[in-house]
Design brief:
Layout (H helix, E strand, L loop, with lengths): L1 H10 L6 H6 L4 H8 L1 H5 L4 H9 L3 H5 L2 H25 L6 H8 L2 H33 L7 H17 L2 H27 L26 H11 L8 H4 L8 H29 L10 H10 L3 H16 L2 H16 L17 H18 L3 H4 L5 H21 L4 H26 L4 H29 L12 E7 L5 H13 L2 E8 L3 H17 L4 E6 L6 H14 L3 E11 L12 H12 L3 E8 L2 H7 L1
Parallel strand pairs: 1-2, 1-4, 2-3, 4-5
């Protein structure tokens, strides 16, 4: 037994060295590039979303831009501090799903997972459409092709992520750095100006500012806050993808989370200060960020650098979802709430099936929206705030149970965050319900029901297989190997050689049709078989309808009927072509036979591949 065990170990595929695995994981800087693009790029539309709501109250309403932004920045600070604690407490990733599953029950965990999945998918669609919208604003001639461009960008981002998360992170470091530097330059330079350097971009465009100022009530401020909260999506991505970081993964992820929060807060507050400083008004066809770049840097090469960096970042912000969602899906697959295929990793440490599934659903959303950002934005922030609230609530329970040093302050922080994000979730849903939020309200429970259905299916499979129970000792049954043949060749010989090695008894079967030509072929095969005399019985099966799979399946069923304790194996010999293009020359008999036998019997199916090397090809000829 010891010898056998050693042989198994030596034949197994060698494990990748720890250093080689770590090479496919993220540093803190790479994590900032790979997982923060969603949050970083939101500064391109977060402040504008606030301004567009407050513009309904005229110029007086715009004066509340900074207070609303400060409220959002305060919520951001609470979220960052809270998610640092989530990373430390749950270093295996999963974010709100992992927290809720442990402390709030399986169903609440599934609600958190469903909310994150919806937000991740919408993030891809919104980011791609927003980036392409910025591009078509600069080049109006491309507007009619925006859907095609959106799908092309999605294919590009998907291909990069299939290369591995580290490769995608390296590819995005430069545009991320350029964008952050550009926004900080706008803020710093703008603070030293007493008046706009240029208004060229907004000149000639109609203002969307309300003509008659109205009072600024609580409802208007809540709507502005809800719209601006779109800037907070993506804050949770680092906590969801902790296993993607190099060791020590938790420490690196925490540093990335803090850096993300600090940069995002500075950019949001800085841009809001400049909006008030330059008295900017929203205008049709020009983004608020473009006006700020114009006013701060002037209408020159620096302005175009900012615009180009914004286009790139908005298009590539989808990478946050590609970094976080496949990890979340792998955790759901591990817990039997998604198909197990989503838990597999490719050789570059990529959850390839999760990446492809995300790309497919995002492509469907792009086609549904026609590449229009405004169709998707109302659905964007709801799911993530549901996840925020569940996560914070679960962390309060976590600290109460663990009671580590300082647990009361930690629980207080998470509890305060849960109240804030819970209120935000209600506000965002209520204010955007008629704009499409009702779709999320419906989709969320449907996803949870789908998770539970998959989990029940795996439970039935596990019960059928007897997983977790000690099985009966193995016993040896009589074995019969059935080999379908149509003529004599080296393929027939190799099939019988394999069959006699596998079973106690071997039978060759051939299917014929009762017409004159087939009878002659059958007589020739029987005569050649007797001359060859392989020591294997040749059984003739007659088919009235020239069916191939059904007669073999019926014969296997008769064997099972008369010999119920016999293990039947159907060994199907097939030719493996030397070149891929030659596969179209095959008649697919093996696939037809395998399908019929698998559908109607419990026989074991074995498909023998006979590879056509140069020598074999010459013999067949």
């Amino acid at each position: 037994m010891l010898t056998t065990s050693k042989a198994v170990v030596s034949d197994a595929a060698p494990e990748e060295p720890p250093g080689a695995v770590d090479r496919h994981r993220l540093t803190a800087t790479q994590g900032l590039a790979a997982l923060s693009l969603d949050a970083m790029a939101s500064v391109a539309y977060g402040p504008e979303a606030i301004v567009l709501v407050l513009a309904g109250a005229g110029a007086y309403g715009l004066g509340f831009t900074l207070p609303v932004t400060l409220a959002i920045a305060g919520l951001l600070a609470v979220l960052v501090a809270s998610y640092r604690q989530v990373i430390a407490a749950f270093p295996n990733g999963g974010g709100s799903y992992a927290v809720a599953r442990r402390h709030l029950g399986a169903r609440t965990g599934l609600v958190a997972a469903a909310s994150l999945i919806l937000d991740y998918v919408l993030n891809v669609a919104v980011s791609v459409t927003a980036g392409v919208a910025a591009l078509t604003s600069a080049f109006p001639g491309l507007y009619g092709d925006r859907l095609v461009i959106c799908l092309g960008v999605l294919v590009l981002v998907t291909a990069i992520n299939l290369r591995g998360i580290v490769d995608s992170a390296k590819a995005f470091i430069v545009p991320t750095a350029v964008f952050i530097t550009s926004i900080l330059a706008i803020v710093v330079v703008g603070l030293f100006r007493s008046a706009p350097a240029s208004t060229y971009t907004a000149d000639g465009h109609a203002s969307v500012l309300a003509g008659n100022a109205t009072s600024v009530g609580a409802l208007l401020l809540l709507k502005a806050f809800a719209s601006g909260c779109s800037a907070l999506t993506g804050v949770e991505a680092v906590a969801n993808a902790v296993p993607s970081f190099r060791a020590p993964a938790a420490k690196r992820a925490q540093r990335t989370e803090v850096a993300l929060g600090a940069l995002l807060g500075v950019m949001l507050i800085g841009l809001s200060v400049l909006i008030g400083r330059f008295h900017l008004q929203p205008v049709e066809g020009v983004t608020v960020l473009a006006q700020l770049a114009d006013a701060s840097l002037g209408h020159n090469w620096a302005f175009y650098v900012v615009q180009f960096a914004t286009v790139i970042l908005l298009a590539l912000a989808a990478n946050t979802s590609f970094g976080g969602l496949p990890v979340l899906m792998s955790l759901l697959a591990r817990d039997n709430y998604l198909p197990h295929v989503f838990g597999l990793k490719a050789d570059r440490q990529v959850h390839r099936h999760g990446v492809l599934a995300l790309a497919a659903v995002s492509a469907a959303l792009l086609v549904f929206s026609g590449g229009d950002t405004n169709t998707l934005v109302p659905l964007f922030a709801i799911g993530v705030f549901v996840g925020f609230t569940i996560c914070q609530t679960g962390m309060v329970i976590h600290w109460r149970l663990e009671r580590s040093p300082g647990w009361r302050w930690k629980a207080l922080l998470n509890g305060f965050g849960a109240v804030l994000t819970g209120i935000s979730a209600v506000v965002v849903t209520a204010t955007k319900f008629t704009e499409g939020a009702w779709l999320i309200v419906i989709a969320l429970p449907l996803l949870v029901l789908a998770f539970e259905a998959i989990h029940r299916a795996y439970g039935r499979i596990a019960d059928r297989l007897g997983l977790g129970r000690v099985p009966e000792p193995p016993r040896r049954d009589r074995s019969l190997v059935i080999v379908p043949v149509s003529h004599l060749s080296r393929l027939t010989c190799e099939a019988l050689n394999a069959a006699v090695s596998l079973g106690d008894e071997v039978r060759a079967v051939t299917v014929s049709h009762p017409d004159e030509e087939d009878r002659r072929d059958m007589e020739a095969l029987r005569r050649d078989w007797e001359l060859w005399n392989p020591g294997v019985e040749l059984v003739e099966l007659t088919s009235q309808h020239r069916s191939l799979g059904r007669p073999v399946a019926d014969y296997v069923s008769r064997v099972h009927t008369y010999h119920p304790h016999t293990r039947v194996t159907v060994l199907i010999p097939e030719v493996e072509p030397a070149h891929i293009w030659q596969r179209m020359l095959q008649n697919q008999r093996g696939a037809v036979l395998a399908h019929a036998v698998r559908k109607d019997t419990d026989a074991v199916i074995c498909r023998l591949r006979f590879r056509l090397g140069p020598t074999a090809a010459r013999v067949e000829a």
